[in-house]
TrEMBL record:
Full protein name: Response regulatory domain-containing protein
Amino acid sequence: MPILYITAYADDHLLQRAKITTPFGYICKPIQEDMLRTNIEIALYNHQQKRKLHESEERFRGAFETSGIGIPPDKLSDIFAPFQQIHHPDIQAEGTGGGIL
């Protein structure tokens, strides 16, 4: 829920305390109706955007966590097969990279 402070106090100590609650606004009295309406609209919009971002992060986190990390074991042989073809422990051929395996 978005928090919007309306207060008659604007001292730095109170402002620092209010920041801890991550408000969507901090309005000092006296206020005008159009200023209040604008701040409420912005607070609701920012809250909606923050919620959408959180939902998106959760979707991507879920997709990432279920996709696994790294190379699946059954695919390792496919990836390393070309290197194994040029590597023979008894033969050294220049330019094949076989000597570095």
